[in-house]
Structure formats: structure tokens, C-alpha cells
Amino acid sequence: MVTIINLSRSVNGINDHICDALTKELVTNKEVVDYLKTRDLSIGFCTNCRQCMKNPGNALGTCHIHDDMDVIIKSALSSKSVVLVAPINCYDLPSIIRVMLERMGVFCYWGDEMYAPKVRDVDTNVLLGILITTSAMPGIMVPLTTGARKSFRLFAKPLGIKKIRYYHLGFKGRKIDRNFNSKDEKKIQAVAKVICNTRRSL
């Protein structure tokens, strides 16, 4: 299975078109896809109680907040590939990623005697993590001037993702440029090929 998580708040925007095209391409190649839009989900803020981190061992901690973050975690842990699609906002991924990262405290153990948390060795199926971004700046500038890749690595680490690919679609600031064009389509086809090849290499 492939989990696609769309972090954009914009309905029918370029990120929606990317996710739709990628989903179509993967389904055509007989991949099972779980497509999630964070704008349609209810994800509450972490209350910093740290109760989810108290139990030792590698089993996931339990959060007292029961909402759609559970859906994201369950889907990701059931997948071979996880794809995040997002615009660059204020030189990073959208703010919802920070909420998600804090709620991923369930992947960590932090005993009262410890100075810092330790990531649990959770048994996961995820082999590949992919970040696709859209930005007004040239795509080549994203790793140099934004925190997008760091944020994605923070998301990927608890899931046990070792292999990461980045795709940055730039010059998407003007209204005329926010259309999904043939160049974008070819890039998404390349992303789908990488995902399918990962499955076939198992």
C-alpha cells in the first residue's frame, strides 16, 4: 500500500492535482493507495502531558487524544511507501506538520530519569518516503533556503523510513503557473515509477 498525505489547505490547487495524478498513476500500476487530505481531518494539538512516552519498550505509546492522527499513523505503518505533498509556506512545510510531529510522540520513550526521549524500534513496513513540494521559488532553492527537508526527516524517522526521495516543483507563485502542466505530469510519472519499483524489488 501507498499512503499519500496532502498537507495543502487549498481546494483544487496544484497540490490536489499532483495527488490526483499520482493516485491515478499508481492505481493504473495496480498499487493500493490511501489518499488523505489533512484539511479534511481532525488533528488536535499535543497537550505536552508526555503520557504516551511513559511506557518502556517498542510498542507504540497511547495518546489520550483520539482523533484522525490515529488514521494517519495506522495508514503509514501499513504502507511500503509514504508520500507527503505540500506547498512551501514561510520557508517550511505547512504548520499542520508541526502538529503531526508533536503527536508522533507515541513513537518515543521518555522515562522520568532520561534527559531526552528515545525513538522506539517500532516494527514498520515503510521502505520509502517521498516529499513533493510546490513553491514560488525555484525548486533547486528549497533545500537551501527552507526547513522542508528537515521537517520531512523528522516525520520519517519514527516511521523507520531509511530511503528518502525529494521532488521540488518550483515557479508556482503566479496564478498562471499553478496549473498542472505536462512537465509536472512527467515528474509525477517518474515518482510513481520509483514507488512501483520499490514494491517490485521486495
Short recap of the structure:
With 202 residues, the chain is an alpha/beta fold. The protein has helices at residues 14-28, 69-77, 96-103, 142-145, 148-156, 182-200; strands at residues 2-6, 33-37, 81-87, 108-109, 118-119, 128-134, 163-169.
Describe what you observe in this structure.
The chain has 202 residues and is of the alpha/beta class. It has one domain: 3-Layer(aba) Sandwich (Rossmann fold), CATH 3.40.50.360. 32% of the residues lie in helices and 17% in strands. The strands form two sheets. A five-stranded parallel beta sheet has the order 2-1-3-6-7, with helices on both faces. Strands 4-5 form a two-stranded antiparallel ribbon. Strand 1, helix 1 and strand 2 form a beta-alpha-beta unit. The radius of gyration is 17 Å and the shape is globular. 33% of the residues are buried.
Topology (elements, then pairings):
Elements (H helix, E strand, L loop, with lengths): L1 E5 L7 H15 L4 E5 L31 H9 L3 E7 L8 H8 L4 E2 L8 E2 L8 E7 L7 H4 L2 H9 L6 E7 L12 H19 L2
Helix pairs in contact: 1-6
Which properties best describe this structure?
202 residues, alpha/beta, five-stranded parallel beta sheet, two-stranded antiparallel ribbon, 6 helices
Write the CATH homologous superfamily: Flavodoxin domain
CATH arch. level architecture: 3-Layer(aba) Sandwich
Strand content: 15-25%
Radius of gyration: 17 Å
Largest sheet: 5 strands, parallel
CATH fold-type name? Rossmann fold
The level of helicity is 25-40%
Straight-line N-to-C gap: 13 Å
Write down the overall mean pLDDT: 95
Outline the low-pLDDT stretches.
Answer: none
DSSP, total strands = 7
Structural category: alpha/beta
So what's the CATH class? Answer: Alpha Beta
What letter string, H or E per element, gives the SSE order? EHEHEHEEEHHEH
What's the number of domains? 1
Placed side by side, the strands forming the largest sheet appear as: 2-1-3-6-7
Q: Count of DSSP helices? A: 6
Shape type: globular
